[in-house]
Design brief:
Order of helices and strands: HHHHHHHHHHHHHHEEHHHH
Number of helices: 18
Membrane topology: Multi-pass membrane protein
Helix content: 55-70%
Mean pLDDT: 85
Protein name: TrkH family potassium uptake protein
Keywords: Cell membrane, Ion transport, Membrane, Transmembrane, Transmembrane helix, Transport
Subcellular location: Cell membrane
Main location: membrane
Number of strands: 2
Radius of gyration: 22 Å
Distance between the termini: 42 Å
Strand content: under 5%
Structural class: mainly alpha
Length: 442
């Protein structure tokens, strides 16, 4: 019997509920700029993309949706970014009942083993960081828009707030038709967005650890060490790859000066980590740059934050396992700590499930459309990893393909392990084990 009180099973239902409400509201006539009702699939796709903090769109956000509709989209990705799992814990605390030990441990599947009983402090940290970062970034952006780009105060405040909330939640939605391509040489606009994205992509457990132990590396948890070191490595890889492959591309970095090239390459190295803003034309990237983005998007950001993908820790756990096999070591681990078998199996399960879903969706969409396969694969990884970057094919996809992307965004945000656990309603530990026998591998 399904126990709605169990947050690991409540999460998918809450996400579906918010998507349904968002779809209904976006279907109202005054949600669109021209006062007509948005088609059901358009409203559904937009609501799913917003609540999953993805950023893929089938209609130009500032042109198609009214201010009311854009506000609804912003509220949806604020809810999605805050996290339904966090909300489920909050509901239990407000009700004064709390979750039992088993329930609390269940919520830690994607919250990366937070200490039992730590929910209240995490919630306080989430609220404080959310309010502080969003207000500060909104203020910086609004001031810049008003003083440099000739916008009136209300307009500048709106664009500043929208981009601040979108950046903090790694949503990638923009109130400008060309995302942030109009600010390619403006570090005061791109910089705060980058910092906000990086901060929240680390995940709240890392933020809490950094708050407690500051820069004292030895006191950091293994999760924090892997996430911070892995994030820096991936950002450096993205920066170097973008510079090397796009330096002379006349449609991207080619016409820019050295400073602008560094700024935009740095900005782009951050965005595939599930943020979705673009200061460069994605459709003009070289094929090798697109392939590098496959990898960055699939890995994603840190656990228990607003980022998607299989997560940084998952990738580096698998990397450590492969390295230990190559070196003939008995145990896999990093930073003088070994991993438990359960974590290794979880990392492998997440990666295989994610790759299988992306592969299946790519094959299906390729079968119902005539678009290039590399663009379809990019779109599917972007949807599953809740990135929101696109080579420009989203609006060209047939209805069946858009529904497939909706499913990818939903599963990508809820989490493959969460979905699998929610479906395994009657799963129990077997009271016996079969005899061991090993097949030939490789």
């Amino acid at each position: 019997m399904l126990r709605l009180r169990d947050p690991i099973r409540l999460i998918p239902l809450l996400f579906l509920g918010f998507i349904a409400v968002g779809t209904a509201v976006l279907s109202l006539p005054f949600a669109t700029a021209d006062g007509s009702r948005a088609p059901l699939l358009t409203a559904l796709f937009t609501a799913t993309s917003a609540i999953s903090v993805t950023g893929l769109i089938v209609e130009d956000t500032p042109v198609y949706w009214s201010i009311f509709g854009q506000t609804v989209v912003m509220i949806l990705f604020q809810i999605g970014g805050f996290g339904i799992m966090t909300a489920a814990t909050l509901f239990g605390l407000i009700a004064g009942r709390g979750f039992g030990l088993r329930d609390r441990m269940a919520t830690q599947v994607e919250r990366n083993r937070l200490e039992t009983g730590d929910a209240a402090s995490v919630l306080k940290l989430v609220f404080k960081i959310t309010v502080f970062v969003e207000l500060v970034v909104a203020l910086i952006l609004a001031t810049r828009f008003a003083t440099t780009y000739g916008m009136g105060l209300p307009e500048a405040a709106w664009h500043g707030l929208f981009h601040s909330v979108s950046a903090f939640n790694n949503a990638g939605f923009s109130s400008f038709s060309d995302s942030v391509m109009g600010f390619q040489t403006d570090a005061i606009v791109l910089g705060p967005i980058m910092i906000s994205v990086i901060l929240t992509a680390l995940g709240f457990p890392v933020m809490q650890d950094l708050r407690r132990h500051k820069l004292h590396w030895r006191q950091w948890s293994l999760h924090t060490k892997i996430t911070v070191a892995g994030t820096l490595a991936l950002l450096l890889f993205g920066l170097v790859a973008t510079l090397a492959m796009e330096w002379s591309n006349p449609d991207t970095l080619g016409p820019m000066g050295v400073g602008a090239k560094l700024l935009n390459a740095a900005f782009h190295s951050v965005m595939p980590r599930t943020a979705g803003f673009n200061s460069l034309d994605m459709g003009s990237f070289h094929d090798e740059t697109i392939m590098a983005n496959y990898f960055l998007m699939f890995v994603g950001g840190g656990s228990a934050g607003t980022a998607g993908g299989i997560k940084v820790t998952t990738f580096f756990v698998l990397f450590a396992i492969v390295l230990s096999e190559i070196l003939g070591r008995r145990d896999a681990g990093l930073f003088q700590r070994r991993f438990g078998r359960a974590i290794e199996r979880q990392a492998l399960s997440v990666t295989v499930l994610a790759a299988s879903l992306v592969f299946a969706a790519t094959i299906y969409i390729a079968s119902v459309s005539s678009l290039p396969l590399d663009d379809i694969l990019f779109e599917c990884i972007s949807a599953f990893s809740t990135v929101g970057l696109s080579t420009g094919i989203t609006a060209k996809l047939p209805p069946d393909a858009l529904v497939a992307l909706c499913l990818l965004m939903f599963v990508g945000r809820v989490g493959t392990i969460t979905v699998a656990t929610a479906l395994a309603l009657g799963g129990r530990e077997r009271p016996y084990r079969y005899p061991e026998e090993n097949p030939i591998v490789g």
